[in-house]
Design brief:
- The chain is α/β, with parallel strands linked by helices.
- The chain folds into two domains: 2-258, Type I PLP-dependent aspartate aminotransferase-like (Major domain) (Aspartate Aminotransferase, domain 2, 3-Layer(aba) Sandwich), CATH 3.40.640; 262-398, Aspartate Aminotransferase, domain 1.
- Helix content is 40%, strand content 15%.
- The chain contains 15 helices and twelve strands.
- The chain has helices at 11-17, 43-51, 65-77, 89-100, 115-124, 140-146, 169-178, 191-194, 228-242, 248-259, 261-280, 299-305, 321-334, 365-370, 387-398; strands spanning 82-86, 106-110, 131-135, 151-157, 182-186, 204-208, 222-226, 285-289, 312-317, 340-341, 351-353, 377-381.
- Strands 1-7-6-5-4-2-3 form a seven-stranded mixed beta sheet, with helices on both faces. The protein has a five-stranded mixed beta sheet with strand order 8-9-12-11-10.
- Bound molecules: pyridoxal-5'-phosphate (PLP).
- Its cofactor is pyridoxal 5'-phosphate.
- It holds the Pfam family Cys_Met_Meta_PP.
- This is O-succinylhomoserine sulfhydrylase.
- Homotetramer.
């Protein structure tokens, strides 16, 4: 928190005001500090800054005021002591793992993770002696059974993508802590406007700021939120030395994005709920996956953990066999005039995707089946357009 932050601010106010620092010029909007290094008053001050005996900026790979304002604001929003910003969401996950883990350590992760996160665990961390076991995220029993003496980290995304399975963060944190394990939650889909994993015992929170925190599809960014000492001792040295630093320009764009986070998440999830209800009542739709619907298997848990169902809605079209289902799903996608056919999410522009042939296209048919990704499945990431215009798109494609 900066000196001006008010401890009682609600999320909407935090998202606009927390962490702001003003220069003597008195600018109202935060300044963008495009500088790679910082000057010192004297040789003695330079020596003190380098030795760490005096606080202050040295070099932008270590600190930059625009980046620090973003970090402070996100830490306040997530109810964590501290936050470290990174160049992307993947940089956040990589940096956190490099900081917290050693060769010989073991991770347990939920199966339904962002594709690149799976690649990082399976293809890259494994080369450095870190092994990952993937489990059915909603089964607490599966997590417990997978625990080994060298398990150091739980890694979870909730709600999951694209089937919106909701995992009980508190129950998972309790299990982790019983075994001296850290519970790391990727809070990308909800953002702190809808879910604060820290309130449910999580130890560390990962963000792809590229998604809802920016919210307008402009820049890449990431963050790790958590306890100050742990982040400073374990993760900061990797960030400073390896250099996956967030740029000042991107930090500034993200600060502007955060100002509208609360109102965007509310409007986007209101629209998503209306669309999910409309889809559920449509005769050509077999099933809708949306935590805000009473029909969602973990609806009660979702409403305890999240402020709303979020902005991701997935649904299966009815059809006769795989080929027919795929043709019908593609037909919905190809009829969309307003929605963008792209796999990104978290934008003001609604996106529509066919997971089985895009994001999950490289999985074997068996692995895809196990993940529950059917050929009739369509994923929507609802943006800020008029809900009626989005429904009109779907109506044409569903016939
Ligand atoms: C996009 C995404 C990431 C990776 O973020 P980048 O900013 O693209 O590196 C990680 N986790 C989730 C859930 C994501 O959607």
């Amino acid at each position: 928190m900066s000196d001006k932050d008010h401890p009682d601010w609600a999320t909407a106010t935090q998202a606009i005001r927390a962490g702001s620092q003003r220069t003597p010029f008195g600018e109202h909007s935060e300044a963008m500090f495009l500088t790679s290094s910082f000057v010192f008053d004297s040789a003695a001050q330079a020596a003190a800054r380098f030795a760490g005996t005096e606080e202050g900026n040295v070099y932008a790979r270590f600190t930059n005021p625009s980046v620090q304002m973003f970090e402070q604001r996100l830490a306040v929003l997530e109810n964590t002591e501290y936050c470290l910003a990174t160049a992307s969401g993947m940089a956040a996950i990589t940096t956190a793992c490099m900081g917290l883990l050693n060769a010989g350590d073991h991770i347990i992760a939920s199966k339904a993770l962002f594709g690149a996160t799976v690649q990082l665990f399976v293809n890259i961390l494994s080369r450095f002696g870190i092994e990952t076991t993937f489990v059915d995220g909603v089964s607490l029993d599966a997590w417990e059974k997978a625990i080994r003496p060298n398990t150091k980290l739980f890694y979870v995304e909730t709600p999951s993508n694209p089937l919106t399975e909701v995992i009980d963060i508190q129950a998972l944190s309790d299990l982790a802590h019983k075994h001296g394990i850290l519970n790391m939650v990727d809070n990308c889909f909800c953002s702190p406007a809808l879910q604060k994993p820290m309130d449910f015992g999580a130890d560390l929170i990962i963000h792809s700021a590229t998604k809802y925190l920016d919210g307008q599809g402009r820049v890449l960014g990431g963050a790790i939120c958590g306890p100050k000492q742990l982040l400073k001792d374990k993760i900061l040295p990797v960030l400073r030395t390896a250099g996956p630093t967030l740029s000042a320009f991107n930090a500034w764009v993200l600060l502007k994005g955060l100002e509208t986070l609360n109102i965007r998440m509310k409007a986007q999830s209101d629209s998503a709920l209306e669309i999910a209800r409309w889809l559920e009542a449509h005769p050509a739709v077999d099933r809708v996956y949306y935590p805000g619907l009473a029909s969602h298997p973990q609806h009660t848990l979702a409403m305890k953990q999240q402020k709303s169902g979020g902005a991701i809605v997935s649904f299966e079209v009815k059809g006769h066999g795989e080929e027919d289902c795929r043709a019908k799903a593609w037909n919905v996608i190809d009829h969309s005039k307003t929605m963008s056919i792209t796999a990104n999410l978290g934008d003001t522009r609604t996106t529509i995707t066919h997971p089985a042939t895009t994001t999950h296209g490289r999985l074997s048919p068996e692995a895809r089946e196990a993940a529950g990704i059917k050929q009739g499945l369509v994923r929507l990431a609802i943006g800020l357009e008029d809900t009626g215009d989005l429904i009109a798109d779907l109506k044409k494609g569903l016939g």
